Sequence to fold (144 residues):
Amino acid sequence: MRALAADVLDTLGAVSAMGLTAIHIGQPERVAVIRLQPDEPHAVYVDPVVAWASPERASHPEGSVSMPGVVEPVERPARIRVRYRDLDGAEREEEAEGLRAACLQHEIDQLDGIFWIDRLSRLRRDRVLKRYAKLRAQRARTEP
Fold:
């Protein structure tokens, strides 16, 4: 598990993301790594679940390494409590708010098979998909 977490962390740094899951690197394990700023310590969550979510909502811009160049605000619970195991197998619980809460929810959704654009209205999701298709087409024309 430590080697897997290290691989996810290495990839996180290589793609300049705030959070990444083992699924992103082709490993079907429920592992997420979060680091909101490049100069801060990372956190590893094994089998994370949202144990509680506040009724208050907050919106944060979200995107994905799977759809580079496209970002859209996503509304989620403003505060959450996450239950998970650490790399030693100990059960942990953590409360988060703001950007950290949004990032954790984004990565837990990824582990649950929910892509961030699934949280958008149909109209906004369609717009994001069109923007991404346009970006891909532009890149294809400019790459040798």
